[in-house]
Amino acid sequence: MRYDVIIIGGGPAGLSAACAAWEAGCRSICVVERDRHLGGILNQCIHNGFGLHYFKEELTGPEYAERFIHMLRQTQADVRLDAMVLQATPEREVHLISPARGYEVLQGKAVILAMGCRERTRGALSIPGTRPAGVFTAGAAQRYLNLEGQMVGRRVVILGSGDIGLIMARRMTLEGAKVLACMEAMPHPGGLTRNIVQCLHDFHIPLYLSHTIVEIRGRTRVEQVTAAAVDQDRSPIPGTEMVFDCDTVLLSVGLIPENELSLQAGIEIDPRTNGPVVYENMETSIPGIFACGNVLHVHDLVDFVTAEAAQAGAEAAAYTASTETAAPLAVHAGHLVRYTVPQRLRAGRLKDGAVLSFRVSALCGKCRIQVHGSTGSLLASFPRERLAPGEMERIRLPKSILSGEGESITVSVEEDAAI
Amino acid sequence: MTEIICITCPRGCRLLAGASNGGVTVTGNRCPRGEAYGRSELLHPVRTVTSTAAIQGASISRLPVKTDRPIPKEQIFACMALIHTLRVQAPIAAGSILYENILGSGANLVAARTVEKAALPLQ
To answer: pTM higher than 0.90, yes or no?
Structure first.
């Protein structure tokens, strides 16, 4: 089978990319999804707060997904459910396997990677102690509870203050569990402020910043955890230990873009985002292969995934091999900026400008986001009241300031001096 | 004055709300919704409840549900108890009312996902 655009993943990124590709005039689209339903992670995110930017109203995850599933049904895009992609080649062949059709190879003119991300697990953290049952990633517990109706425990300690952990603190509490504490190794929360308030404060769940779990004990099931304060190097401080009797530990300690297929295809990966390096049109280092959503970099809001994926979908629909000969403009992450997406801009291909997404490496008060050219000249400055590592930031650079800017631009954050 | 963090959107504005000659004043908000939230949070805090209910005859076992408007905070657990008693039959359309006027709050409990009747249901 041949398609103009093949999209790997039917979550929020894949759905938006498919709708945008159709909108852009593409009439040969296939979405491949490994689950039996479209919607991806949104199906288990039953809480509300989705869609404020995109739909200007507050929706739950399943409702947000349903809007796009409905839009996709209005198109003639093919959808393969229960179909697992095994390989995507640099020649844009997509190999997949499904109970309905067996082994298939689809050939795309363009391929969009929209595989999302995975959670970091206990193995990535090296928490000392025994290996009992009862240690879950927050997203796994969310899946058990919200899709399968199974409670994973009754007395819970949460490690990490990422949004999924916070949401699960509230969710487990509503279903009758006792959430004893949430531990965050960093001096600032990982998740959105609103989630600290409505998930922890509302239910009097204590948040211990600069604390971590130093031991998990239990024979067959978790029985106890020991937590301790940590110093600036995140090493536990002796004498600060606290013991919690609990049967469950939930981990909300970060997400990792799921790029097995990208690596296999030989796509260049940015070690800071763990996602593909992309150009201004969301195209990866392999021509005709695009990436968007959490497989590219971890987002905090689905609305931004939708916007980014819509761009990827439209660009993939219009894809023609680049004839640009000029070297691309590299976007460097400067002071207090952890990474930027896209990482490279081809000035000749920009339409009206470029949206740069990034995260800061530390909490910043009143500050300015600055963009400098390769000669050090200030190209643009954006004032902000506050920037937090847990929140993705976006700026729009007009095309006019980017043309003739040499080899690179640098995005940095300068804090205003305290008044 | 009471410091309140606005939860209306991800921005998380820090509001100051206080009673003043019969009314309520809210400062620190950057949109009208922030003012409304500050007022409500000071006088009578409300929250939207989201959960899941048992569903039969479908290819999934849990139906996401929500209150179609926020309910008083002190009614959250009573609302949860009510959700636990529900047994929904597929098919159901998103937005269908499952329970009217929960606990006299004026809010309805509605389905938050469209679920088809399955040829081979789970149970």
So the answer is: yes
